[in-house]
Every structure is written in C-alpha cells, then in structure tokens.
Specification:
The protein is built from 6 helices and 4 strands, in the order E-H-E-H-H-E-H-H-H-E. The chain starts with a strand and ends in a 24-residue tail after the last strand.
C-alpha cells in the first residue's frame, strides 16, 4: 500500500517511485526527511527547488540538496514527504538495534521514525520500508555507551 524511503539528493526515492509506478501503480510513495534538512519538503511545498539551505541533522547521508531531475520525478509521481526530528530518528535507530539486532545509520532509520510518528496514518496498511545503510561510527552513537564486560570473569 505504501513504500517509504529516505530522501537526501532524491535518487533512491525517485527511482523507487518509477519502479513502484510500473510494478504497483496504486502504491503510495513517501519520502522521510530530517526536519533539520527539509529542503525536499520545502521544494515540493513551494513548487520550486530550494537551493539556499544549510542542513542541521544527525542524518549525515541526507544533508545534500535534492537534485532538480529527482525533484521533477517526485512531483510527477506524487511523492509525499514526511519530516522527522533527530530525536525521533535516534529512537527508531535504537529500536531497530534492540529488536532486530541490526545496526542502521540514522539516515536509514528515519523511515521507521516516520511510520512511528504517523502511526495512525499507516494503521491497517501494508508498508514497505527501504532501510538503506549501516554506516555507523560505533563511538559516535547517539546514546550513552555502556562499559564493556568483555574479558571480565
């Protein structure tokens, strides 16, 4: 029913929109974007590409500006953008780690954060989440590290 992917430059979400249009034309496509880097959201809202923008987000993979071609593709396919705060993304990242035992980068966890933030909107629907990366510096995780007990008797 719905496919969510992160959006930075727009390549992943626009390609997903093209594929979904061919394979599942009734599937809605939603991009998840950090509130501190919401140039795609603003570009779609204003009807023109925003180019003067300074991102401020933990999602380093989504700090880039949306590309003009990708923006046109997203418009043509009716892609909607949901913004998510960094705190919500960090909570989703931690939930994925705790429940699935998978380390994902914040730029990837943002799709789950968007579903959690808007849970009523997605209730009863089949949802696909594109979880697209695991580039994480374990020493820079956004929650307190616990002391290691490795090697202790």
């Amino acid at each position: 029913d719905v496919l969510l992917a992160p959006v930075g430059g727009g390549g992943l979400i626009s390609g997903s929109a093209i594929a979904a249009a061919a394979l599942a034309p009734d599937c809605r496509i939603i991009a998840a974007e950090p509130a501190g880097a919401a140039d795609t959201f603003e570009s779609l809202r204003q009807g023109k590409r925003i180019s003067a923008f300074v991102p401020d987000t933990i999602c380093d993979g989504l700090r880039t500006l949306v590309g003009e071609i990708n923006l046109r593709i997203m418009r043509a396919h009716g892609v909607e953008v949901l913004t998510v705060d960094d705190e919500e993304t960090i909570a989703a990242m931690r939930l994925i780690w705790q429940r699935m035992k998978i380390i994902v980068e914040p730029s990837s966890a943002i799709v789950l954060a968007a579903v959690i933030k808007h849970r009523q909107r997605f209730a009863g629907q089949r949802i696909g989440l594109i979880v697209s990366g695991g580039n994480v510096d374990l020493d820079a995780l956004p929650w307190p590290a616990r002391p290691s007990t490795a090697g202790e008797a």
